[in-house]
Amino acid sequence: MDYIKAFIVGGLICVIGQLLMDGTKLTPAHVLVSFVTSGVILTAIGIYEPIVNFGGAGATVPLPGFGYALAKGAVKAVKESGVIGIFTGGVIATAGGVAAAIVFGYIMAVIFDPKTKS
Q1: What is the pTM of this model?
Q2: How many C-beta atoms surround the C-beta of residue 36 within 10 A?
């Protein structure tokens, strides 16, 4: 059942993104920034936590989940370190995911022959 819930939540997030790109003049970059920002805002007002509890990886893996991780990290760091945690918490909380994306992206670039689209 967890897989189905993750699929539904992640799928709905992707559908929203696709509808935004198809139905508006927003570029993928605009949608990316909007989703990360919405993840932070929804976490701050207490709405995203129940979505994460229900959808699991379906809510934490997409872009709003990155915003969720940033916000949760900042809140935790503020409780532990004070005001400096505002600046350090989100970076520390998401460092593992960012590092993994860089390492795996580099490995794929070495293994395969990347080409630009023409």
Answers
A1: 0.81
A2: 19
